[in-house]
Amino acid sequence: MRIPVLGGIQAQGRVRPGLLVRPNSLLPMFWIAIALAACQSTPDTQPVANSQPVADPQPAPAAGAVPAPASPNSAALDQTAAIVPPGKGVPARYAAFSGIWAGQLNGMYDGKLAVLTVSSGGQVTASYAWGDLADNKPGVADGSGRISGNTLKLGRLPNGADITATMPSPGTLNVTYALAGQTYTGSFARVSQ
């Protein structure tokens, strides 16, 4: 019985040598290298008819004029996260937590906390986004919690993190993020209402 195989035909347990089976021959590798080189394309350097010369790039805007694009490893909230303004019956001490807060944990890990809803009893729904955080890749987790005094405590998030945010003064949150036996802290500022 003859069975076709790469480089030859197998007959009764032996392979008849073919082009790719000879270990001592460099000729097949030479032809493969020539074929690969022929397939490589070179950039087109011919001018295109009726093309306009390319203008020099515009100078960079002044510092602070345009925010730098976010790093792919930074914290990014879900685009559908929407802040619902607290109703008239929500005490001001609870309403002060509403909005999007951003900062860094341990001075190097980006974090964003969106307090989406605040009820008159201090219950909240929130979304927390983190950038690269030790061994964790950037992500977002939604949760709920409660405000007591000047402290917002979220229930354990789906990623296993516990978050507490204390408001020492209006517009500032001191955030504690605990995950897998590690605790990270940082100061966050309100970036939008």
Strand segment count: 11
CATH topology of the largest domain: Lipocalin
Q: What strand order characterises the main sheet?
A: 4-5-6-7-8-9-10-11
The average pLDDT value, as a whole number, equals: 75
CATH architecture of the largest domain: Beta Barrel
The share of residues in extended strands comes to 35-45%
Poorly predicted sequence stretches spanning 5 or more consecutive residues: 11-16, 19-23, 41-69
CATH class of the largest domain: Mainly Beta
> By helix and strand content, what is the structural category?
mainly beta
Task: Report the major sheet.
Answer: 8 strands, antiparallel, barrel
Please report the distance between the alpha carbons of the first and last residues: 79 Å
According to CATH, the homologous superfamily of the largest domain is Calycin beta-barrel core domain
How helical, in percent, are the residues? under 10%
Counting DSSP H or I runs of 4 or more residues, the number of helices is: 2
